[in-house]
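Mods, move this if it's the wrong board.
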Amino acid sequence: MASKVSLKAGKGKVVKKSAAADEDEGRAAVAAKFVKEWSTWAMKKAKVITHYGFIPMVIIIGMNSDPKPSLSQLLSPV
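Not the wrong board. Structure tokens:
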């Protein structure tokens, strides 16, 4: 009969961590949480800026193009 691989805790060597290792892991966890929160906040702000700024940006770029159209020409679908 083939032997089974066991993933139960308690077998093998028990490795105890030092207080310095726990402190380093705590700092890393806090830094990771900070980066995650900051990036989420930045992406939400970028989404809002893009949502409300895209059409005005297109109009401004269109107004500054070489054959200077009027605003009504820019906004009309024809």
